Amino acid sequence: EEEGGKNAITFVQNLLDLKDRFDHFLHNSFNNDKIFKQMIAADFEYFLNLNNKSPEYLSLFIDDKLKKGVKGMTEAEIEVVLDKTMVLFRFLQEKDVFERYYKQHLAKRLLLQKSVSEDSEKTMISKLKTECGCQFTSKLEGMFKDVTISNTINEEFKQRVSSAGEFKQRVSSAGTNLCGVDIYVRVLTTGYWPTQSANLKANVPMAPRSAFEAFRRFYLNKHSGRQLTLQPQLGSADLNAVFHGSRKDESGVGSGGVGGGGGSVGGGGCASPGLVVGSGDGVSSVAGISSSSSSSASTVAVAPPTSSNGLMPSPSLPAAPPAPTPAPTTSAGASPSGAAVMSTGKPSGPKKHIIQVSTYQMVILMLFNTRDKLTYEEIQNETDIPDRDLVRALQSLALGKPTQRVLVKSPKTKEMESSHEFTVNDSFTSKLYRVKIQAVAAKGESEPERKETRSKVDEDRKHEIEAAIVRIMKARRRMTHNNLVAEVTDQLKSRFLPSPILIKKRIESLIEREYLARTPEDRKIYSYVA
Question: Compositional bias of type Pro residues: which residue ranges (predicted)?
C-alpha cells in the first residue's frame, strides 16, 4: 500500500479492491457477522487516515472517473465505482480537506468542460449531500448555478453586440467576436469557486484585453457596484495556426513567428514566420477567469473561458491580438486568419491547425509576433506571469509530447534558467487538425501547494470551532470545560476531528474577545457573555 500511495488513482483503487476482498470474506466465510463487520470498518478507518494525503487522493480518484474520455466505462459503471468510493469517504476523518480539493477539481472540470456528464456530476454531489448535509455541498451547487447564469449573461451580451455599432464585430456560435476575437466569459461567485486569494496578473495582449473590457462595461452597466477581476489562470484559448514547415533564410537560421488576425511577421530581423497564429474566423478564443464582487457583500467572479470543443460554447479569453501587416509577399494557401511571408528557402507546404492552449500559454505565444527568439527572463518580464505557472506553461509548449511542441527550447532541459532561449518550432506537425496542448502539472499537489492548502484548512477550522463553541454556549449559557470540548467534538466530527488542544485555544481566544467568561467560583466553568 505504501507503494500505491505514490499515485492517487492506484492508491484508491487498491483500497477499493481490498475492501471488495474483505467484503467477500465477510459474506461467504463469516455470514456477515456484525462484530467482524465492525472490525473491518474500524481498521479501514484507521489505516485510511494514517495517510494525510487520503482526502486529496480520494478527490483525485473521483475526478478521474468524472472526466471525459474515461475509456471502457459507461455512466452506470462509473456510478457503481462512485458508490464504492463513498464507502471510503465515510471512513475519512478530514472531510473538510476533501471538500476543498473536490471544489478545486470540480471547478477545473466545469471551466474546461471536461465533465463526462452534468447528470453524473450532480449525482455525485447528491451522494455527498446525503452523507454530509446541504452545508457541505452548498458551494458545489452554487458553482453549477454560476455556469447557468453565465450562459444567460453571454447570450444577452451577444444580442447587445449584434445590435450595437461600437465595434467592428460579428456573432458566432462559439462566442461574441470583438476586435477579431471570439470571447465567452463565465461570471463566477468568488465565495463558491476556489479562486486565488491574491489577484494573479498577466499582460494579456491588446485584442483579448479590449474584448474583455467591452464585456466588463456591459456587465457593470447591468450590475452597478460590482467589480470584475480577470483570473487568467483559469482561462483558455483557441488559436488559429498555419505552419509552413522548416526552412532557412540566407544566414541559414530557421525563423518563426506567432501572429493574430491578419497575420504577422516574425520579429528580430527574421525574414519570415514559419508559424502564424491568430483568432481567425470561426475560431473561438477563450479568456481567463475574472471575478466580480457584487454590491452586497458577496464577491462574484467572472471566468472568461475555456476553449471551445466544437460541441458547445466555451469560455474564452481572446486568443490573439491583431497582428502587424505582413510583408508584401505571402505564401500561397495562407489562411485568412494569418499569412506567412515567403523566405529564401522552400517551405514544405502550409499546415493549418487550431491550437488549444491556456490563457497563460496564449500570452506567451503572442510575444513571438515581434521576436524571433526570447529568453526565459524576457518572457517572464514581458508577461508578468507568476514564476511557477510560467515554468509549467513553457514546459507544455516546448517539452511536452513531440506532437505538441509548438516552441523549441535551448538547451533542451526540463530546468528553466533566465538565459535559456525559446523559438517557434517551424517543423511542428500533427495528424490532428485541433491540437490541445496538455498542461504540464503534477497529478497531485506539490509540497508547497499542500502546505498552503493545509494552512487554509487550519484557518477555516478555527472559525468553525469558534462558531460551534458560540452556538453551544448560547444555548447552554454555562458549561464545564470537559463537557464543552466533548460537545464541540461531537458537532464537528462529521467534517473533522478537532483536537482538545485546538478547542482550548479557540476558547481562550473567545474569552479574550469577551464572548465567553470564566465563572469566579470555578475557572473550569465557562459562561456565555450576551
Answer: 315-327
By CB atoms closer than 10 A (0-12, 13-18, 19+), residue 337 is: buried
Q: Please tell me the distance from the alpha carbon of residue 288 to that of residue 283, in angstroms, as a whole number.
A: 16
DSSP state of 196: -
Cβ contact 116:77 at 8 Å: no
Output b/e per residue, 30-49; b: 16+ Cβ within 10 A.
eeeeeeeeeebeeebeeebe
- Grid coordinates in use for 99? 471538500
d(CA 411, CA 401): 17
Q: How far is CA 384 from CA 96, 229, 361, 375, in A?
A: 34, 16, 12, 14
Residue reference for cell 483500497: 15
- Running DSSP on this structure, what letter comes out for residue 284? B
User: In terms of Cα–Cα distance, which of 323, 411, 425, 324 is closest to 375?
Assistant: 411
- Report d(CA 73, CA 89) in Å as an integer: 22
DSSP structure string for 390-439: HHHHHHHHHHS-GGG--EEEES--SS--TT-EEEE-TT---S-SEEE---
What's the rounded Cα separation, in Å, for the pair 290 and 185? 8
Q: What is the mean pLDDT of each run of 10 residues along the chain (530 residues)?
A: 59 92 92 92 91 91 82 78 92 91 90 84 91 88 92 89 59 57 86 71 85 89 86 85 61 39 32 37 35 33 34 34 34 33 48 86 86 88 88 88 85 85 84 82 67 85 93 93 94 90 94 92 88
CB 314 within 8 A of CB 296: no
Count of C-beta atoms within a 10 Å radius of residue 70 = 15
Of 248, 244, 216, residue with least CA distance to 229 = 216
**Quick one: CA torsion of 128, 130, 131, 132, rounded to 10 degrees?**
80
Nearest CA to 383 out of 372, 393, 397 is that of: 393
CA distance 226 to 220: 7
- Span 62-75, pLDDT tens digits: 998 888 766 667 77
The CATH H-level (homologous superfamily) assignment of domain 156-436 is Cullin; Chain C, Domain 2 (3.30.230.130)
Q: Under CATH, what is the fold of the domain 4-132?
A: 5 helical Cullin repeat like (1.20.1310)
List, for residues 243-269, the tens digit of each pLDDT value.
766 655 433 333 444 443 333 323 333
In this structure, which topology does domain 447-528 adopt according to CATH?
A: Arc Repressor Mutant, subunit A (1.10.10)
Give the pLDDT score at 347.
47
State the cell numbers at 226.
Answer: 460590482
Reference 279, options 246, 251, 307, 250; nearest CA is 307
Q: Ramachandran region of residue 262, left (φ > 0), alpha (ψ -120 to 50) or beta?
A: alpha
User: Among 449, 146, 136, which Cα is nearest to 291's?
Assistant: 146
In angstroms, rounded to a whole number, what is the distance separating the alpha carbons of residues 284 and 281?
8
